[in-house]
Amino acid sequence: MNGFKLNPEFVIRDEQSLRSLFDATHALALQKCQDSLGKHAQDFIRRSPFLCIGTQDLNGKADVSPRGDPAGFVKILDERTLVIPDRPGNNRLDTLVNILANPTVGLLFIIPGFDDTLRVNGRATLVKDADLLASMSVNDRAPKLAIVVEVSEVFMHCAKAFRRSHLWSPDHFQDRTTMPSLLKIILDETTGAPSDGNEMRKIDEDLEDEYKRTLY
Q1: pLDDT by residue (tens digit) across 142-200?
Q2: 136 DSSP 8-state letter
Q3: Any idea where the Pyridoxamine 5'-phosphate oxidase N-terminal domain is (predicted)?
Q4: Which of 78, 117, 181, 185 pairs with 18 at a CA distance of 20 to 30 A?
């Protein structure tokens, strides 16, 4: 299969060309952007069990990572400061390494059942303050470090994407078993998955056991 090639005639190369395709921004869309966490933003964060954090390295290579915990897992230290615990993962450390190189981050807070979301932008710092980490313990396990975010921009994001995708509608849920398991996908694309179904099933079961042992 030949790789897709863009027709340069249709490439947008400057902001003026981009904005000419759209109507002017509604004044409220500009005014809604705040530089600190108001009472509603704080309430949203306390209700949220899930966020995505976007980072970039110095060369502009981007990454988005999901973070989840019981609702309210992100601590609000004050109206300009958030703290996100770093739980055990795969130890690639993509987000953390990016923050060391480029502290600018973007956060998207999501609440199950809510179609609107909260966006927070700011500068991140990695910290290992023992008292702070202890305050974010779950099942008596404190995180090894935390991400402190100095907030610079806060605003609510409208519901259109979630409405279009029917994200929370059970009628649109898909059957996970119609695709291979996580490990089979990874093995297929790397070293090769075992052809023996029982062996593959044992690998999947081992992953579930690991989740139970290492979630915190």
Answers
A1: 999 999 999 999 999 999 999 999 999 999 999 999 999 999 999 999 999 999 999 99
A2: T
A3: 39-158
A4: 117
Q: How many domains does the chain have?
A: 2
Structural domain boundaries enclosing 109: 33-165
What count of Cα atoms within 13 Å lies in the side-chain half-sphere of residue 112? 8
| Band of pLDDT at residue 99, cut at 50, 70 and 90 | very high
The answer on 191 and 108 residing in a single domain is: no
Q: Mark whether 104 and 122 lie in a shared domain.
A: yes
Phi, psi of 13 (to 5 degrees): -120, -5
* C-alpha gyration radius of the chain: 21
Asked if residue 102 and residue 185 are part of one domain, the reply reads: no
* Long-range contacts of residues 53-56, Cβ cutoff 8 Å, at least 24 apart: 53/84, 53/95, 53/105, 53/106, 53/107, 53/147, 54/105, 54/106, 54/107, 54/108, 55/94, 55/95, 55/98, 55/99, 55/102, 55/104, 55/105, 55/124, 56/98, 56/102, 56/104
Q: Which residues pair with 154 in a beta bridge?
A: 34, 120
Concatenated DSSP letters for 94-109?
HHHHHHHH--EEEEEE
Q: List the Cα angle 197/198/203 in 5-degree steps.
A: 95
